[in-house]
């Protein structure tokens, strides 16, 4: 970047850390019996590490299966690729029936854009909506950086416009909150128009197994971002991590996953490497 136009917008590591601490593992207290519920308990965009991720293609397929009926979208996500988030938002907005969004734990970054597609947005009192400017990894001289800034500007404006349209706030105020990387609790989100009402307290729970899995995968995602920020390509970063971690493109095995009660030597190695990258 900027010579390469295959650009991805990321969720930065501090957001992943916040999600690990405050929202990882939050799930519905009871399984929904209806077949019109779309769950987004993952990053936004395809996830190379797990084979999962929330994409516009998957959401469009789910909406076709639901048909001409109201839809419930449950979100607990640290975000991911902002460009994919905008695509998912537009797919949901095209649905002819009402959409109810439930922010179960956190709708951060690209996930906050998707949340704005709800005709009704419900949020837990201890849940968060987080908004910030488009975040990418770039390198080069000052002319390259100026080009990157100019390239990103319309996307930041598009996000501010989406927030302003849904909330009734001024776009300039939304842009300021994006500049400040703002976390809004349930009551603040409702006060500012980012949500309409609180979820009942008994509608969510913390799944400890899911929490450990969420946090473990995020450690690897954060390590990848650190390597890319240091100048490595994504393919090189993934190859280096795989020398420690194991098999790409599949669900992580607890035996080789940090924080999941597996190989203690591997866990210590990855944690040490991650800390060195962050420092």
UniProtKB/TrEMBL annotation:
It holds the Pfam family CLP_protease. Gene3D superfamilies: 2-enoyl-CoA Hydratase, Chain A, domain 1. SUPFAM superfamilies: ClpP/crotonase. One of its GO terms (molecular function) is ATPase binding. Residues 245-264 are annotated as: Disordered. The keyword Hydrolase applies. Belongs to the peptidase S14 family. This is ATP-dependent Clp protease proteolytic subunit.
